[in-house]
Specification:
With 141 residues, the protein is of the alpha+beta class. 20% of the residues lie in helices and 29% in strands. It has a single domain (19-133), classed as 6-pyruvoyl tetrahydropterin synthase/QueD (Tetrahydropterin Synthase, Chain A). The N and C termini lie far apart (34 Å). The structure holds ligand LPXRUNBV and zinc ion (ZN).
């Protein structure tokens, strides 16, 4: 069972949904300043998505939990992250991973008529290292 403590963002939307998931993936940081992380290695990332909105869809969902899992897990699980076109311009650091997950998720949410928003992505890479990404403003696509 996944259970983690992560920060709760402040907002005034009526609904807040959180989706946890694990993604097993390999990566490397192609820069000598990254030390041993230059070598290909793997992590089981723990990811938490925070989605908010004021309206539900016809099924009573803010967004289907499985859609969120498909967008993230479906794309990155059991992959070498560096091979993904989303990491063509910047290496898959935890920070970039969190930002990239935000973009992938918000793109999916932009197709929903009830217009939910992703306001926080939490990515834990190791037991001692995690990043929280929050978009500057709750931008609508
Ligand atoms: N700001 C960042 N620093 C580092 C990143 C990163 O993505 N952003 N990544 C790495 C490595 O990829 C590594 O996988 C994780 O590093 P680290 O937490 O140092 O790993 P350890 O398990 O060895 O941590 P300890 O707390 O020392 O056990 C490096 N830096
Ligand atoms: Zn790593």
């Amino acid at each position: 069972m996944i259970q983690q403590i992560y920060p709760a963002p402040i907002h005034s939307y009526r609904y807040e949904l959180n989706k946890d998931m694990h993604v097993a993936a390999a990566h490397y940081i192609d820069d000598e300043r990254a030390g041993r992380c230059q070598r290909v290695h793997g992590h089981t990332y723990f990811i938490n998505l925070t989605i908010v909105g004021d309206a539900l869809d016809e099924t009573g969902f803010l967004v289907n939990f499985s859609k969120l899992k498909q967008a993230v897990h479906g794309r990155f699980d059991h992959r070498l992250l560096n091979e993904d076109t989303l990491f063509e311009t910047a290496p898959p650091s935890t920070e970039k991973m969190a930002e990239t997950i935000y973009k992938v998720v918000q793109e999916q949410l932009d197709t929903c008529p009830n217009r939910p928003l992703c306001i926080q992505v939490y990515v834990r890479e190791t037991p001692t290292s995690y990043v929280v990404y929050r978009p500057k403003e709750h931008a609508r696509g």
